[in-house]
Specification:
- With 624 residues, the protein is of the alpha/beta class.
- The protein folds into three domains: 3-207, Rossmann fold, CATH 3.40.50.970; 216-379, 3-Layer(aba) Sandwich (Rossmann fold), CATH 3.40.50; 391-581, Rossmann fold, CATH 3.40.50.970.
- The chain has 24 helices and 25 strands.
- The strands form six sheets. The chain has a six-stranded parallel beta sheet with strand order 5-4-6-7-9-8, sandwiched between helices.
- It is globular and about 70 Å long.
Length: 624
């Protein structure tokens, strides 16, 4: 067997370069790049190997380890899990900075490969710089913290272990049923060790994302249940995007006359104007989608985890509603005693549709006409409401709905909206009405503040691959709270030339949590800046701050000024930041009950009233 003597670090890089995948009909790298911040745990070995790789595996420097891993996640989401970025850090604080990002990837079922330096496998130099020692277990390092938030975890203590470990990590990340982050700890001495690696290990391998077929009996049970429905409803989740099943979902809905509602991750599976798109469902959803969910008798949940914001903490559906769960992961397919269809979303929809078609000649089964007419009336009411609250007025500051409304009205089909935690997810979920498929990313599985700018950087990299002619902008919506938590990747976009349009909505603090606090009977406390313990209340010049990092930036006030600023941002060559004050107490309504913990005992009547409301809401909660 022919072998090549390489360090462990060199072998890892060579293996990653050899992995390929198919996007459309193109053979492209499975690992198109690495986000890296180097330190003593990864610079001398892995860093050297990456430098040698050059453009075969390009390295991009982030400004914060969490941010660069979030950028990798934004890339994966925009590429619909067809490519995987790598993020590498040193040991200690650099590694731990990536743990939050690993949680984001894990909860959202998104692939990212995390390579972190580690202490010495020999333990001779212990304790080394940044090492955390455990008195009773010397095998533990900070990298063990990744175990709860990764799908695959390993620590390489001998060079030859990568021969089995790396293929398993890749398999985990590209399998639709297990997709999520993979983590590999690389002790500093092991990175440097040389080994005679078999050349076959570095043979070019082309991976194709599998489309596992559901069991025929599962498909037949699902079709039988659906054929009895009088008020069927389709829930489109993120798995529709990852299966590239948007066209088949549309065809299925049209063929069988079924209204469609979307989860946050599933938004833009259908264009908003499609007559069967009844809007976003759940706590951050709209009145039309939630009204239909409350009355549906058969709910077909496609590619969704059915999280509490989708289900209204399981109060949003009729007590006797039956579920069909179409999902590559059996864990999700069986939730709430769903009729499980474990397999690829696109193929399952095709096969169930065939079963619902009457081969006797009378055509396919279709939902009742009066149900879809009802859905259309409900949806028209939703759009009328959004049009009303999004319309500009003379009042200042603007509401979130008005800000989103301006961008929505002038958006182009190639634009891609991105956000994450805070008040913006609910506002965008309702007010961003997608003109094109796969034009929206709101990280709401982990609801991670700080994703907005870093994730948008990764998304822009991906959109440049998908849209090489440059048609369309990545527009990141970020609140002042998230901006203050993580903004340094604005500088990354300037360095790398990945232009973003960033809209900073400054409502004076953590306004949406203030809303939750007050709505559950509490007093405003420690959320809005005016309510925090302070000596001097100073407001941040966000435009000045962004300008200092090389961005073009301006502060505006009115809807007309926002529209004009967006035109300037489109014309600009680099990242453009638009800052404006937004109202801290005006919100889009239409959501449903969400269970949060409210005290059973309190000296405030408002808290007791809120607890009573929670108990009333829970009375309609499905246990199964």
């Amino acid at each position: 067997m022919r072998c090549t003597r390489l360090t462990t670090a060199q072998a890892i890089v060579r293996y990653l370069i050899a992995q390929r995948t198919i996007i459309g009909e193109r053979d492209v790298p499975l690992f198109p790049g690495v986000f890296a911040i180097f330190g003593h745990g990864n610079v001398t070995c892995l860093g050297t190997a990456l430098q040698e790789a050059g453009d075969e595996l390009p390295t991009w420097r982030g400004q914060n380890e969490q941010g660069m891993a979030l950028a990798a996640i934004g890339y994966a989401k925009a590429m619909r899990r067809r490519q995987i970025m790598v993020a590498t850090s040193s040991i200690g604080p650099g590694a731990l900075n990536m743990v939050t990002a690993a949680g984001v990837a894990h909860s959202n079922r998104l692939p990212v490969l995390l390579l972190s330096g580690d202490t010495f496998a020999s333990r001779v130099p212990d304790p080394v710089l940044q090492q955390v020692e455990h008195f009773g277990d010397p095998s533990i390092t900070v990298n063990d913290a990744f175990k709860p938030v990764t799908r695959y975890w390993d620590r390489i203590v001998r060079p030859e272990q990568i021969i089995s470990s790396l293929p398993q990590a890749v398999r985990t990340m590209i399998d639709p049923a297990t997709c999520g982050p993979a983590f590999i700890a690389l002790p500093q001495d092991v990175q440097a060790e040389a080994f005679e690696f078999p050349d076959r290990f570095f043979a070019q391998t082309v991976h194709e994302i599998s489309r596992p077929r559901a069991d025929r009996r599962q498909l037949e049970r699902a079709a039988r249940l659906m054929s009895t429905a009088e008020r069927p409803l389709l829930i489109a989740g993120g798995g529709v995007h990852y299966s590239l099943a948007e066209a088949e979902l549309t065809r299925f809905a049209e063929t069988h006359h079924i209204p469609v509602v979307e989860t946050m991750a599933g938004k833009a599976c259908l264009v908003s104007a499609h007559p069967l798109n009844s809007g976003p469902v759940g706590v951050t959803g709209c009145a039309s989608a939630n009204a239909l969910a409350a009355e549906a008798d058969v709910v077909i949940a496609v590619g969704t985890r059915l999280g509490d914001f989708t289900t209204g903490s399981w109060t949003g559906f009729a007590p006797d509603a039956r579920f069909v769960g179409i999902n590559a992961a059996g864990f999700d397919a069986i939730k709430h005693q769903g009729v499980a269809v474990v397999g690829d979303a696109r193929e399952a929809l095709v096969e169930i549709s065939d079963l619902l078609s009457d081969r006797g000649g009378s055509g396919a089964w279709r939902g009742p006409e009066e149900w879809t007419v009802r859905a259309g009336h409900e949806t028209a009411g939703y759009h009328a409401y959004i049009d009303k609250i999004a319309a500009p007025t003379d009042a200042l500051p603007l509401t979130y709905a008005q800000v989103v409304g301006v961008v929505d009205r002038i958006a182009r089909p190639g634009d891609y909206a991105l956000s994450a935690a805070g008040g913006l997810p609910g506002e965008l979920n309702n007010g961003w009405r997608a003109r094109s498929i796969d034009s929206f990313d709101c990280e709401y599985g982990f609801s991670c503040m700080g994703y907005e700018i870093s994730g948008a950087w990764g998304a822009k990299m991906a959109r440049n691959v998908l849209q090489p002619d440059g048609d369309g902008e990545v527009i990141a919506f970020v609140g002042d709270g998230s901006y203050l938590m993580m903004n340094s990747d604005l500088y990354s976009t300037v360095l790398s030339g990945h232009k973003l349009i960033v809209i900073v909505c400054d409502n004076g603090g953590f306004a949406v949590i203030n809303r939750l606090q007050v709505n559950q009977g509490g007093e405003p406390f420690n959320n809005l800046l005016v309510d925090v313990r302070h000596d001097r209340l100073a407001y941040v010049d966000f435009a000045g701050h962004a300008s200092a990092m090389g961005c073009l930036a301006e502060t505006i006030e009115t809807a007309d000024e926002l529209e004009a600023a967006l035109a300037r941002a489109r014309a600009a060559a680099g990242t453009y930041v638009i800052v404006l004050r937004t109202h801290p107490y005006e919100w889009t309504e239409g959501g449903i009950f969400w269970e949060v913990g409210v005290p059973e005992v309190s000296n405030r009547q408002a808290v007791l009233d809120a607890r009573a409301a929670v108990d009333r809401g829970k009375s309609g909660q499905r246990l199964i």
